[in-house]
Amino acid sequence: MDSLSKAKNITRYKLSKLTGIGQTTLQSYKDGVEPSFKNMCKIADALDVSLDYFRKEDD
């Protein structure tokens, strides 16, 4: 999520404003906390990507 935000020139502050998700919560996602589906949808919409972008392979 961080590299995509940087590529789109969106700071954590701006992402927080676009999604309504607190900056501390966004930081916790960066640190490995799994976001809720609802918040993941908000983030995907704000970054203009599909939810598939965030899928992890279990291999």
What is the secondary structure topology, with strand pairs?
Elements: H1 2-7, H2 12-19, H3 23-30, H4 37-47
Overview features:
56% helix; globular; single chain; 59 residues; 4 helices
Order of helices and strands: HHHH
- Give average pLDDT, whole number: 89
Proportion of helical residues:
55-70%
What is the number of beta strands?
0
Overall structural class, as computed from helix and strand content, comes to mainly alpha
Major sheet description: none
What global shape is seen? Answer: globular
What is the distance, rounded to the nearest whole angstrom, between the alpha carbons of the first and last residues? 20 Å
Work out the strand percent.
under 5%
Q: Cα-atom Rg, whole angstroms?
A: 11 Å
Number of helices: 4
Low-confidence stretches: none
Please explain how this structure is put together.
There is one protein chain. The chain is globular, with a radius of gyration of 11 Å. Helices cover 56% and strands 0% of the residues. The model has no long low-confidence stretch (mean pLDDT 89). The chain is built from four helices and no strands. It has helices at residues 2-7, 12-19, 23-30, 37-47. With 59 residues, the protein is mainly α. The longest helix is centred in the C-terminal third of the chain and has 11 residues, at 37-47.
